[in-house]
Amino acid sequence: MSLIASDFSYLPDVSIPGERAPLVSTKKDGKSSDLKSYLDAKGDSDIFFPTDFWLLERIDHYCSGPVSLWKDKSSKKGKKRRTIT
């Protein structure tokens, strides 16, 4: 299984309170504006969630199953994992 993720190098400050709160933005007449709630996004807005790549890596490794580091006959040979950020 492979997980490919990308992220913006910069997002402006988020006006919604909370850890990893989304940025909700809309564009009208060529001008972008940020909304104060994701509930205000009525089909014409973009919602950007900040990405925690460390957490995604942990989830990916956990969901991929255990890799045996022991060399015995009953274990499958595990592949070493790599993560590129």
Topology:
Layout: E1 23-28, E2 31-34, E3 45-48, H1 53-63
Antiparallel strand pairs: 1-2, 1-3
SSE sequence, one letter per element: EEEH
Domains counted in the coordinates: how many?
1
Fraction in helix: 10-25%
How many strand segments?
A: 3
Taking Cα atoms only, what radius of gyration do you get, to the nearest Å? 20 Å
Low-confidence stretches: none
Category by helix and strand content: alpha+beta
Largest sheet, if any?
3 strands, antiparallel
Largest sheet strand order: 2-1-3
**Rounded average pLDDT:** 75
Tertiary shape: elongated
Helical run tally: 1
Organism: Thalictrum thalictroides
Protein name: Arginine methyltransferase NDUFAF7
Keywords: Methyltransferase, Transferase
GO molecular function, one term: methyltransferase activity
Give an overview in words.
This protein has a 3-stranded antiparallel sheet with strand order 2-1-3, with no helix packed on it. The chain has one domain. The chain contains 1 helix and 3 strands, in the order βββα. It is α+β, with helices and mostly antiparallel strands and 85 residues long.
Summarize the structure.
By secondary structure, the chain is an alpha+beta fold. It has one domain.
Descriptive labels:
3-stranded antiparallel β-sheet; Arginine methyltransferase NDUFAF7; methyltransferase activity; 85 residues; methyltransferase; alpha+beta; single chain; transferase
